[in-house]
Amino acid sequence: MNLLDFVISPAYAQSAPAAGGGMGMQLLFPIALIAIMYFLMIRPQMKRQKEHRAMLEKLAKGDEVITNGGLAGTITEIGESFITVQVADNVQVRVQKGAIANVLPKGTLKSA
């Protein structure tokens, strides 16, 4: 026995742990991570897309809308993929249906 052994305890190699339940835990973590990602990111995005599609289907002539670019106006004509929006007297703009961000309550543009 060495004098240094009294001050610093000797280190011994540990035996390898048994490889029984480690594989199940390794598979459980990625599955749980995917489930969390689905509920926090993918599912809410799909819900928003569904609501936006339903809003676009309900658009009618005379609705007041705001586009993604910030233009506010009244729908004067609805096509299959384009909508004509009147933004001022004798000023009409054609935009894609998907560019409609929001439908405003009736009378909002007149009060603004």
TrEMBL record:
<dbReference type="InterPro" id="IPR003849">
    <property type="entry name" value="Preprotein_translocase_YajC"/>
</dbReference>
<keyword id="KW-0472">Membrane</keyword>
<dbReference type="GO" id="GO:0005886">
    <property type="term" value="C:plasma membrane"/>
</dbReference>
<keyword id="KW-0811">Translocation</keyword>
<keyword id="KW-1133">Transmembrane helix</keyword>
<protein>
    <recommendedName>
        <fullName>Sec translocon accessory complex subunit YajC</fullName>
    </recommendedName>
</protein>
<comment type="similarity">
    <text>Belongs to the YajC family.</text>
</comment>
<dbReference type="Pfam" id="PF02699">
    <property type="entry name" value="YajC"/>
</dbReference>
<keyword id="KW-0813">Transport</keyword>
<keyword id="KW-1003">Cell membrane</keyword>
<keyword id="KW-0812">Transmembrane</keyword>
<keyword id="KW-0653">Protein transport</keyword>
<dbReference type="GO" id="GO:0015031">
    <property type="term" value="P:protein transport"/>
</dbReference>
<feature type="transmembrane region" description="Helical">
    <location>
        <begin position="23"/>
        <end position="42"/>
    </location>
</feature>
